[in-house]
Amino acid sequence: MGDHDDLRKFISDLAVVHGRVVLSSAREADWYVDLRRVTLHHQAAPLVGRVMLDLTADWEYEAVGGLTLGADPVALSMLHAAAPTGRALDAFVVRKAGKAHGLQRRIEGPEVAGRRVLAVEDTSTTGGSVLTAVEALREAGAEVVGVAVIVDRGAGDAVRAAGLPYKAAYTLADLGLVA
C-alpha cells in the first residue's frame, strides 16, 4: 500500500467515530470524523504531509496554513514532509481574531504578504473556517493559490464559488460514509 491508502486506513480506523453526535450546525449525525486523532498521531502525521504535498503538487506556493486549530497540524506535517526533499515550505497560523497585545498579529509565523500561499484544513463541511482564513490572508497581502483539505464533507462548492481552486485527498464516499 502507498501513502494515500495507508492514510485512508488511519482515518477509517482512528478518526471515524460512530455514534450519535450533534454537529456545529445543530444537526445530528450517526458518525463524526475527528481528524485530529490522525493529524496528531505519530505514524499518521507524516503521511498527512506527504499525501497533501502530493495532492497539491501542481500548485505553486511558498507557505501553507489556515485557521487554527484544524489547519495547524496539517500545515506542520506538510512543512516537515517538504524539508527532506529540499523544498523550502513555510507554515503559518491564522488566528480567529487578532491579538490585543504584543505584535497584535492575526497571522503568526513567517510573513505572508506578497507570497503565494495554500490554505488548508483537516476537514470542511461548509468552507466557513477555511474561507475565514482566506479572507485574513488576502487582507495581509498574500496570494491564495487554492484550498486543500484532507477530507471533504461538502465544502467544495462554497470554496469554488469564492473563486478558489479546491482539492480534497478523500471524500466521504472514499471513506465509506454517506453525507
TrEMBL record:
<feature type="binding site">
    <location>
        <position position="99"/>
    </location>
    <ligand>
        <name>5-phospho-alpha-D-ribose 1-diphosphate</name>
    </ligand>
</feature>
<dbReference type="GO" id="GO:0004588">
    <property type="term" value="F:orotate phosphoribosyltransferase activity"/>
</dbReference>
<feature type="binding site">
    <location>
        <position position="153"/>
    </location>
    <ligand>
        <name>orotate</name>
    </ligand>
</feature>
<feature type="binding site">
    <location>
        <position position="125"/>
    </location>
    <ligand>
        <name>orotate</name>
    </ligand>
</feature>
<feature type="domain" description="Phosphoribosyltransferase">
    <location>
        <begin position="108"/>
        <end position="157"/>
    </location>
</feature>
<dbReference type="GO" id="GO:0019856">
    <property type="term" value="P:pyrimidine nucleobase biosynthetic process"/>
</dbReference>
<feature type="binding site">
    <location>
        <position position="101"/>
    </location>
    <ligand>
        <name>5-phospho-alpha-D-ribose 1-diphosphate</name>
    </ligand>
</feature>
<dbReference type="GO" id="GO:0000287">
    <property type="term" value="F:magnesium ion binding"/>
</dbReference>
<dbReference type="InterPro" id="IPR029057">
    <property type="entry name" value="PRTase-like"/>
</dbReference>
<keyword id="KW-0665">Pyrimidine biosynthesis</keyword>
<dbReference type="GO" id="GO:0044205">
    <property type="term" value="P:'de novo' UMP biosynthetic process"/>
</dbReference>
<keyword id="KW-0808">Transferase</keyword>
<comment type="similarity">
    <text>Belongs to the purine/pyrimidine phosphoribosyltransferase family. PyrE subfamily.</text>
</comment>
<feature type="binding site" description="in other chain">
    <location>
        <begin position="121"/>
        <end position="129"/>
    </location>
    <ligand>
        <name>5-phospho-alpha-D-ribose 1-diphosphate</name>
    </ligand>
</feature>
<dbReference type="Pfam" id="PF00156">
    <property type="entry name" value="Pribosyltran"/>
</dbReference>
<protein>
    <recommendedName>
        <fullName>Orotate phosphoribosyltransferase</fullName>
        <ecNumber>2.4.2.10</ecNumber>
    </recommendedName>
</protein>
<dbReference type="InterPro" id="IPR000836">
    <property type="entry name" value="PRTase_dom"/>
</dbReference>
<comment type="subunit">
    <text>Homodimer.</text>
</comment>
<keyword id="KW-0460">Magnesium</keyword>
<dbReference type="InterPro" id="IPR023031">
    <property type="entry name" value="OPRT"/>
</dbReference>
<feature type="binding site">
    <location>
        <position position="95"/>
    </location>
    <ligand>
        <name>5-phospho-alpha-D-ribose 1-diphosphate</name>
    </ligand>
</feature>
<comment type="pathway">
    <text>Pyrimidine metabolism; UMP biosynthesis via de novo pathway; UMP from orotate: step 1/2.</text>
</comment>
<feature type="binding site" description="in other chain">
    <location>
        <position position="96"/>
    </location>
    <ligand>
        <name>5-phospho-alpha-D-ribose 1-diphosphate</name>
    </ligand>
</feature>
<keyword id="KW-0328">Glycosyltransferase</keyword>
<comment type="function">
    <text>Catalyzes the transfer of a ribosyl phosphate group from 5-phosphoribose 1-diphosphate to orotate, leading to the formation of orotidine monophosphate (OMP).</text>
</comment>
